[in-house]
């Protein structure tokens, strides 16, 4: 990477740059988005803090009275473009060259190219990820190794990048002296470089949106889409967005979130691991909301069941896709017995999703695509989706979404050890620039590390385990000191840190 010669006024790069990806025109576009929208972003982040104070004081979320007309209104989203009509299996992964090629060749209908939880946000990863995305869209992405040449097949998955969440900064780019919004940086560069090319190729600029906590945060994304399309002279409504419902507060505003994005919306996704993390974080002060070992918090426990059924019913009423959760298992080439047991669990999970009315699902590894596809082929047949299945039988109350105390299970020493092992193991990978890490035959990302450390914090603060026992487990774990230090910082602090990626980010290049 070299340094961009002509910088837009008020912009400072604190790291070497790619002259093409970070061209003056591309940076000027990102700056336009940031200057117009970042003040609102900061206000919304402040509202998150205010809401947390209310929850810590004893209030509980409910469906909004002021938006009842939206929930009760008769409206639908814009119809999906042809290459988003059938999304029965989507594969996810970081914007790393080899993984992108394998994912796009996997047979999945969609590849979610992740700048967020599955990608360690080193400067090199973020900039090269944009380069890889542009090459993939143009069909020129390839990789030569001593063992193999990686190129795209004739037929590939539809690309949907996921920018980083509203809470994250990109500290290597300053605009008027402050770090640029990571969300607007990722979205802006992807849109600027690729929107016209995608349209020319018969597709379009599609995005996944993560970590939203309210319909106002969805409105801000819609404002970004409108502004971006206006700036580049692209027809309004060309962008399509799928929102991950991965926070408990967003679950109470699903209708409103889709409504804010209705000209650009294509669906919602059940982001299961982040959702569990959000439940722990938001209700940190309530001992009755203490969850058992992570492995026991399945998709069939009452509060998770309510959330997923409401998501399907909400999406289908509005003509939007309902996308199921992640199958994170990584098949082993050495253990066929393990594979057989795990693949049957994956199949059961996907059968449940298809039966509930989901239009598609997520997998983390190419070898899971055939299993998930077979399940949804059986449910859908020749149909591209099952949006017509309205699930009028679903009636979910606020109490159902908040039925966390009804979760069966227990807190055990094995649960503590597993959380420490996964959390530290993942942080070790993340701090070394790898955001999708294979641990215990599962593809782990930031979300599972967040559950691991926040559960330990919750168990300590509600006296289910001792701080000393957790610290002993941390010290017993074989891992580099920096990973153990960050994990202890976010798991053992007096106050629960909102996102472990914020303090950990300071240690990245």
Report on the structure:
The protein has 509 residues and is of the alpha/beta class. It has two domains: 11-400, TIM Barrel; 411-505, Malate Synthase G, Chain: A, Domain 4. Helices cover 46% and strands 14% of the residues. The chain has 18 helices and 15 strands. The strands form four sheets. It has an eight-stranded parallel beta sheet. Strands 1-7-8 form a three-stranded antiparallel beta sheet. β14 and β15 form a beta hairpin. α14 (413-431) crosses α15. The longest helix has 33 residues, at 24-56. The model has no long low-confidence stretch (mean pLDDT 96).
Supply database-style keywords.
alpha/beta, TIM Barrel, Malate Synthase G, Chain: A, Domain 4, eight-stranded parallel beta sheet
Provide the spatial order of strands within the biggest beta sheet: 6-3-2-13-12-11-10-9
**Backbone structural class:** alpha/beta
Kindly report the name of the CATH homologous superfamily of the largest domain: Malate synthase, domain 3
CATH architecture of the largest domain: Alpha-Beta Barrel
Number of strands: 15
